[in-house]
Automatic annotation (TrEMBL), chain A:
Recorded GO MF terms: electron transfer activity; heme binding; metal ion binding
Alphabetically ordered keywords of this record: Electron transport, Heme, Iron, Metal-binding, Transport
PANTHER family: CBB3-TYPE CYTOCHROME C OXIDASE SUBUNIT FIXP, CYTOCHROME C4
InterPro entries tied to this protein: Cyt_c-like_dom, Cyt_c-like_dom_sf, Cytochrome_c_Oxidase_Subunit
The protein's name in its UniProt record: Cytochrome c553
Source organism per UniProt: Thalassobaculum litoreum DSM 18839
Residues annotated as domain Cytochrome c: 69-155, 157-250, 270-355
Domain of life: Bacteria
TrEMBL record, chain B:
Ranges of residues in domain Cytochrome c: 238-330
Name of protein: Cytochrome aa3 subunit 2
InterPro entries: CcO_II, CcO_II-like_C, Copper_CuA, Cupredoxin, CuRO_CcO_Caa3_II, Cyt_c-like_dom, Cyt_c-like_dom_sf, Cyt_c_oxidase_su2
Localisation: Membrane
High-level lineage: Bacteria, Pseudomonadati, Pseudomonadota, Alphaproteobacteria, Rhodospirillales
Length: 360, 330
C-alpha cells in the first residue's frame, strides 16, 4: 500500500514537471499551420456537436422565422459581422479565413445539419477555441433570431440573391461619410427603414438622441448585439456626424402601417398615450414622445410612424426591465412597468398609425 | 445620597420628556378639533379610572401581604371575590361602555359645509376640494387646508394598497381602501398648523407619508381656495421661465399637472400651486428652493422606492432653474 502511494506520488510529480515545461518553456507548438491531428479533430468536433445538442433550447421556443423582414435584417447583420469568415452562399472564403484552425465552414455547410434551435444556441453563445464569437450582448434573445431566420434560408439562396438582399441603397450625397452606407443598408438612405418592420425609422429623431443612442449601444447600456457591433466600429465623432445626417432626413408624410383592423386598439392606445383617466398610474407617453402640441425635447425619440412590431418589442423590453438606453432610460422603466400585453399592443398600434410628418 | 439625587433627576427628566409628547402638531393630547376634544376627554376619563383601579388593587395587595398577613374569614373572601371580582367590573365596564357608545354618533356626524376627497397613494395624498356650488374639484396634494369652526366632510379612498388617514390633533383615524369609500368629518376649533400621518403600514416609505393641516379663519380659507382653483402663475423671471422649459422638455408633464400648461399628468401630485405648500414629498422636505433641488436630485435616497425617478443626471443649472420654477408656483 505504501509502495503504491509512493509510485503514484512520483508519477504525479513527473507529470507536473512535464506540464510545467510545456507551459513555462513553450514546448507545445501553438502554430495554426499544421492543423490538428485527426484524433484531436474528432474529439473536438464531437464534443462541440454533443455540447450544442445538449444545450440548445427546446423546439417550442423557436419563434416564427418566416417573416421576410426578419430574414433581411439577419442577412444584413450577417453581412456586417459574419461574412468575413463564412462568406456569402456559394462565395469563396478569403485566404485569411481559410488559414484559420479550424477553418470556418462555408455558410451553407455550417448550417446544413442543424435545426434552428441549434443555430440559435451557436450564434448566441459562440464556440470556444474555434474562433466563433458569442453574441455581443447577453440578454435579448429576440435580437439573435433574425440571424437564425436568415440562416434557415441561406442554403437555398443564390449569391446574387444574397447580394441583392444586403446591398446598401445609394446615398444622396457624400456628407454622411463612407460608413453611413452600412447604417443605410438597414435604416435606408432616407432613414425610413427600407420598409422593414423590424427596423426603427431614424427620420424624425433628434440629433442628440441618435448620438446618445449610438453611444449607449457601444457601451452596452442599450442591449442589441446587432447595433453593438455596428456602433463598435464608430467613435464619438462618427456618432455626431451620422446623427447629424439622419436627423436632417425629412420624415415622409405617409404612415408606414395600415390602421384598418386596428381601430379599437388605436383608440385605447391614444387614450393611454395622452394620459388616460382610467389608468391614473400610467404616465402619459405624449409628454416625452409626442405627438406634442408644444415643443418637446430632442433627447426623447418621436414614436410617430415607427413600425408596429418594432414598437411592441421595445415596449415589452421596457416593461420587463430588459432594456436600457440613454441617461433618461430609467424613466421608461417607471412608465411601462404596469402595462399589460393588450395595452402594449394598443400603444404600438396607436403610434404606428400616426403620420411621422406631423411630429415637430 | 448622590445616587438618590441622580434617580430623582432621571425620573424628573423622564416625566418632562413624556409630558413633551402631550403638546405639539401631532398629539391626541393637544386637541384642536371637536372630535379630538371628545377623544381627549375619553382618554383622561379612562386614564383616571385606570389610576384609581391601580391604586385600589395594589392597596389591597399591600394590605394582605404586608399589613394583615394571616387567613381571612370565608365571608370576607367571598365578598371580595363577588363584589370586586364580578359586580364591580360589570358595573364599571357597563358605565364606560355606555359612555363610549354615547360619544360615537357625534364622531360619525356628517359635515355641514365643504367636502374634501383624499386618496391615499404610495406614498402621498391626493387631495380634491369638492365645492358646494357644484363646480369641478379643486385638485391639490399633500396638504389639507380647513376652515375653523366648520365641520368638513372627508371622503377617503386609496389607489393600490390600504392606508389610514389620521390627524391626531383634529380627530380620530379612518382606514382608506382601494375601490371603496370611507368617510369621516373634521371640525377644527382653533387655527394653526397640525400634522397628519398615514397610520397603516403601506410599503417602504410609509413613515414618509405625512401632510400638514392648515386651519384658517373662514374668510382666509375661502380666499385661499379661490386662488387654489386658478391656473398656475406665469414664471416670474428668466430663471423660472427656463425652469418651465426644462419641466416641459424633460417630460415632467407625463406624471404631474400644472394647470395652464400642457402638463396634464395625474400619476403624481398636482403641482399647480406646489410652491405655496409647506412641504414637498408628503411632509418629507420643506417646500423651499433648496428642498425642491434636493428632492429632484436625490428622490430615491430621500424616499426609498418612490415612484418618481431621480433627476440627478440633469445639468446642475437645469435643476436650479427647475427648483426656482416650482417654488414660484404659489
Amino acid at each position: 500500500m505504501t509502495r503504491f502511494l509512493l509510485h503514484t506520488g512520483i508519477l504525479i510529480a513527473v507529470a507536473a514537471v512535464a506540464a510545467g515545461l510545456v507551459v513555462f518553456l513553450g514546448l507545445f507548438n501553438v502554430s495554426a499551420r499544421g492543423g490538428h491531428l485527426p484524433s484531436v479533430s474528432w474529439v473536438l468536433h464531437t464534443t462541440f456537436r454533443n455540447a450544442v445538442e445538449l444545450r440548445a433550447p427546446p423546439a417550442e421556443t423557436v419563434p416564427d422565422l418566416s417573416d421576410p423582414d426578419l430574414v433581411a435584417l439577419g442577412a444584413r447583420h450577417y453581412d456586417a459581422a459574419c461574412h468575413m469568415c463564412h462568406a456569402g452562399p456559394g462565395e469563396a472564403r478569403t485566404a485569411t479565413a481559410l488559414s484559420m484552425v479550424p477553418a470556418p465552414p462555408p455558410i451553407r455547410d455550417a448550417v446544413s445539419d442543424w435545426e434552428p434551435r441549434h443555430l440559435f444556441w451557436i450564434v448566441k453563445h459562440g464556440v470556444k477555441m474555434s474562433g466563433m464569437p458569442a453574441w455581443p450582448t447577453r440578454s435579448r434573445d429576440d435580437d439573435v433570431w433574425p440571424v437564425v431566420a436568415f440562416l434557415t434560408r441561406v442554403a437555398g439562396m443564390s449569391l446574387a440573391e444574397y447580394e441583392a438582399l444586403v446591398a446598401p441603397p445609394d446615398m444622396p450625397d457624400e456628407t454622411a461619410g463612407a460608413d453611413a452606407a452600412s447604417c443605410a443598408s438597414c435604416h435606408g438612405a432616407d432613414g425610413r427603414g427600407r420598409g422593414n418592420a423590424q427596423v426603427p425609422r431614424l427620420d424624425g429623431l433628434g440629433e442628440a438622441y441618435i448620438a446618445a443612442t449610438l453611444a449607449a449601444y457601444r457601451s452596452g447600456a442599450r442591449q442589441s448585439g446587432i447595433m453593438r457591433h455596428a456602433a463598435s466600429t464608430l467613435d464619438a465623432t462618427d456618432d455626431a456626424r451620422l446623427a447629424g445626417f439622419y436627423a436632417a432626413r425629412r420624415p415622409s408624410p405617409a404612415p408606414t402601417s395600415e390602421p384598418d383592423g386596428d381601430r379599437e386598439r388605436i383608440v385605447l392606445g391614444r387614450s393611454l398615450a395622452m394620459g388616460s383617466p382610467a389608468r391614473r398610474d400610467v404616465p402619459a407617453c405624449n409628454a416625452c414622445h409626442g405627438p406634442w402640441p408644444d415643443r418637446r425635447s430632442a433627447l426623447f425619440p418621436s414614436l410617430s410612424g415607427q413600425p408596429k412590431p418594432y414598437l411592441l418589442r421595445q415596449l415589452e423590453l421596457w416593461r420587463d426591465g430588459e432594456r436600457g438606453g440613454t441617461a433618461r432610460a430609467h424613466l421608461m422603466h417607471q412608465a411601462a412597468r404596469d402595462l399589460d400585453d393588450g395595452e402594449l399592443r394598443a400603444l404600438a398600434a396607436f403610434y404606428a398609425s400616426l403620420d411621422p410628418g406631423t411630429d415637430p | 445620597m448622590r445616587v438618590r439625587l441622580r434617580i430623582r433627576a432621571g425620573v424628573a427628566s423622564a416625566c418632562a420628556l413624556s409630558l413633551g409628547g402631550c403638546t405639539g402638531v401631532q398629539s391626541v393630547l393637544d386637541p384642536a378639533g371637536a372630535d379630538a376634544e371628545v377623544l381627549a376627554t375619553l382618554f383622561w376619563v379612562l386614564l383616571s379610572g385606570a389610576v384609581v383601579l391601580w391604586l385600589l388593587l395594589n392597596g389591597a395587595f399591600f394590605y394582605v401581604t404586608r399589613m394583615r398577613v394571616r387567613p381571612h374569614s370565608r365571608k370576607i373572601g367571598e365578598a371580595v371575590i363577588i363584589g370586586a371580582g364580578i359586580a364591580f367590573p360589570t358595573v364599571l365596564l357597563a358605565i364606560l361602555l355606555s359612555y363610549g357608545l354615547s360619544i360615537m354618533p357625534d364622531q360619525r356626524a356628517p359635515g355641514d359645509g365643504l367636502t374634501v376627497r383624499v386618496t391615499g397613494e404610495q406614498w402621498w395624498w391626493r387631495v380634491e376640494y369638492l365645492p358646494q356650488d357644484g363646480g369641478g374639484p379643486v385638485v391639490s396634494a399633500n396638504e389639507l387646508r380647513l376652515p375653523v369652526g366648520a365641520r368638513t366632510e372627508i371622503k377617503l379612498t386609496a389607489a393600490k394598497v390600504i392606508h389610514s388617514f389620521w390627524v391626531p390633533n383634529l380627530g380620530g383615524k379612518m382606514d382608506m381602501f382601494p375601490g371603496r369609500e370611507t368617510r369621516m368629518a373634521l371640525e377644527p376649533t382653533r387655527t394653526g398648523v397640525f400634522r397628519g400621518q398615514c397610520a397603516e403600514f403601506c410599503g417602504t416609505s410609509h413613515a414618509l407619508m405625512a401632510f400638514p393641516v392648515v386651519v384658517l379663519p373662514p374668510e382666509e380659507f375661502e380666499a385661499w381656495l379661490a386662488k387654489e382653483r386658478e391656473d398656475a402663475a406665469a414664471p416670474a423671471d428668466a430663471a423660472a421661465e427656463r425652469g418651465r422649459e426644462v419641466f416641459l422638455a424633460e417630460g415632467c408633464g407625463a406624471c404631474h399637472a400644472v394647470r395652464g400648461t400642457p402638463a396634464k399628468g395625474a400619476v403624481g401630485p398636482d403641482l399647480t400651486h406646489v410652491g405655496g405648500r409647506r412641504t414637498i414629498g408628503a411632509g418629507t422636505l420643506p417646500a423651499t428652493a433648496e428642498g425642491f433641488g434636493q428632492w429632484l436630485a436625490r428622490t430615491d435616497h430621500i424616499k426609498p422606492d418612490v415612484r418618481m425617478p431621480t433627476y440627478r443626471a440633469l445639468p446642475e443649472q437645469d435643476l436650479i432653474d427647475l427648483a426656482t420654477y416650482l417654488k414660484g408656483l404659489r
